[in-house]
């Protein structure tokens, strides 16, 4: 890390020296006692974060980093938003916790605010602790509603780390956990840059992907499928925006065969694509929506399922066999209420759309035009991916699918040393800042990324 602290006192009141001492102790305890997810424990060196504010975080050395990662793409309103922090404090003083069988005002209001923003008649909200269990319950609802078992999910997707969710996932994290017994059928979705359908344009990609999907359903037995689950815009897998007509075509196939359509909005929802829910970019109404992350900007864990009237009616006089101890937890729901209201009051969703079309998108396309290691940039709002390649003609990835490479590591290191915290996965850098990021902050991040991409060029 070559950046230097630019202030004597961090936003949390610690001096840089105090922050360094705290970080040293934090790191020592982490390595002694914390078991990290998705990691070989002896091979990691986690960055210690000692403070955050707005679009920035401070590491254990007191270095200030512009957060282009959204952490795990969840700080949709940035860090330490005062209205949300205050709401959590007020709720803790009023009603810290209560069992889910009791109504509480924070949960009722959060449900109302979410239902007002969902498309169509998805007016019932089942609250979970996070995204993975939202997916688990959405699939359970679909199976009970239809009386069927199989579920369709695309390759190049991520749906969570619990048992059903990880089996639905279409990336390498599934492999060690997949015993082919979860009733999941994977399929190839549209991704023109790396087309599975030999398409030459978006229309061909959409048409051929839909034809393939319907044929697969027929061959697998159309009456055996309870649901299809799709990230409205796949996130960790690469931010592949569906081509025009594809999501509407999936909706039509679901209607034709009586299959429940589940839109996974855990990462793409709550403003990230410039709409409250990413599915609204495609004028399609699913039967179920799963959400988490941005609903509270990650300040307190919360997820949920938005349920259509037809599926909710299945459980009007029939008990739904599922629940969670912390479903609709008051602290989490108070954070959701404050987050949604802050996003509304400060026009953050509109800002995300404008930033994507006027600043971030054009800036990334400019980088693509000037760097040999960039194969493609794609995205919406504040949800973008930079696909890095070793060869623009062959489109050979700069790092293999499921892995990394020295060249990719050099780009990531250059981002951090320049003062940018990126989201990186395989051969991609994702530009996923907060929905309320400013134009100047985006331009500063692009300038750092520009310099870092030169490391990728140098490796070719």
From TrEMBL:
Asked if the record carries the keyword DNA-binding, the reply is no
UniProt keyword list: Aminotransferase, Pyridoxal phosphate, Transferase
Give the top-rank taxon of the lineage listed in the UniProt record for this protein.
Bacteria
Known Pfam families for this protein?
Answer: Aminotran_3
Residue stretches in coiled coil: none
Q: Name one GO cellular component term.
A: cytosol
**GO molecular-function annotation terms?**
pyridoxal phosphate binding; transaminase activity
Q: Which InterPro entries match?
A: Aminotrans_3 (IPR005814), Aminotrans_3_PPA_site (IPR049704), PyrdxlP-dep_Trfase (IPR015424), PyrdxlP-dep_Trfase_major (IPR015421), PyrdxlP-dep_Trfase_small (IPR015422)
Q: Which family does it belong to?
A: Belongs to the class-III pyridoxal-phosphate-dependent aminotransferase family.
What protein am I looking at? Aspartate aminotransferase family protein
Query: What is the organism field in this record?
Result: Mycolicibacterium bacteremicum
């Amino acid at each position: 890390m070559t950046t230097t602290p630019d202030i004597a006192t961090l936003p949390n009141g610690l001096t840089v020296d105090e922050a360094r001492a705290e970080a040293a102790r934090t790191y020592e305890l982490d390595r002694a006692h914390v078991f990290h997810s998705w990691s070989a424990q002896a091979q990691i060196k986690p960055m210690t974060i000692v403070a955050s504010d707005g679009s920035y975080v401070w590491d254990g050395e007191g270095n200030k980093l512009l957060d282009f990662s959204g952490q795990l793409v969840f700080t949709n309103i940035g860090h330490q938003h005062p209205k949300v922090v205050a709401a959590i404090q007020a709720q803790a003083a009023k009603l810290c916790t209560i069992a889910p069988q009791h109504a509480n005002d924070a949960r009722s209001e959060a449900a109302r605010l979410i239902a007002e923003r969902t498309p169509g008649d998805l007016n019932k909200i089942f609250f979970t602790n996070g995204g993975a269990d939202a997916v688990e319950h959405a699939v359970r609802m679909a199976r009970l509603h239809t009386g069927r078992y199989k579920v369709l999910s695309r390759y190049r997707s991520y749906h969570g780390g619990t048992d059903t969710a990880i089996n639905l996932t279409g990336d390498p994290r599934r492999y060690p956990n997949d015993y082919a017994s979860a009733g999941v059928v994977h399929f190839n979705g549209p991704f023109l840059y790396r087309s599975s359908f030999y398409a030459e344009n978006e229309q061909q990609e959409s048409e051929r992907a839909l034809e393939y999907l319907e044929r697969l359903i027929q061959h697998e037995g159309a009456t055996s499928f309870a649901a299809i689950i799709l990230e409205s815009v796949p996130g960790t897998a690469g931010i592949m925006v569906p081509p025009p007509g594809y999501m509407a075509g999936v909706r039509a196939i679901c209607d034709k065969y009586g299959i429940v359509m589940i839109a996974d909005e855990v990462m793409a929802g709550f403003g990230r694509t410039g709409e409250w829910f990413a599915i609204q970019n495609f004028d399609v109404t699913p039967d179920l929506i799963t959400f988490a992350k941005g609903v509270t900007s990650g300040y307190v864990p919360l997820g949920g399922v938005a349920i259509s009237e037809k599926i909710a009616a299945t459980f009007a006089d029939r008990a739904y066999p599922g629940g969670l101890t912390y479903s609709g937890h008051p602290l989490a729901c108070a954070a959701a209420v404050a987050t949604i209201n802050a996003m509304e009051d400060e026009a953050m969703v509109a800002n995300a759309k404008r930033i994507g079309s006027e600043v971030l998108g054009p800036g990334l396309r400019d980088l693509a035009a000037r760097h040999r290691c960039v194969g493609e940039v794609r995205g919406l709002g504040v949800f973008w991916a930079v696909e890095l390649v070793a060869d623009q003609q062959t489109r050979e990835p700069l790092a293999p699918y499921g892995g990394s490479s020295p060249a990719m590591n050099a780009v990531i290191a250059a981002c951090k040393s320049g003062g940018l915290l990126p989201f990186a996965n395989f051969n991609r850098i994702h530009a996923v800042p907060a929905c309320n990021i400013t134009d100047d902050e985006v331009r500063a991040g692009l300038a750092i990324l520009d310099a870092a991409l030169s490391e990728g060029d140098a490796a070719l």
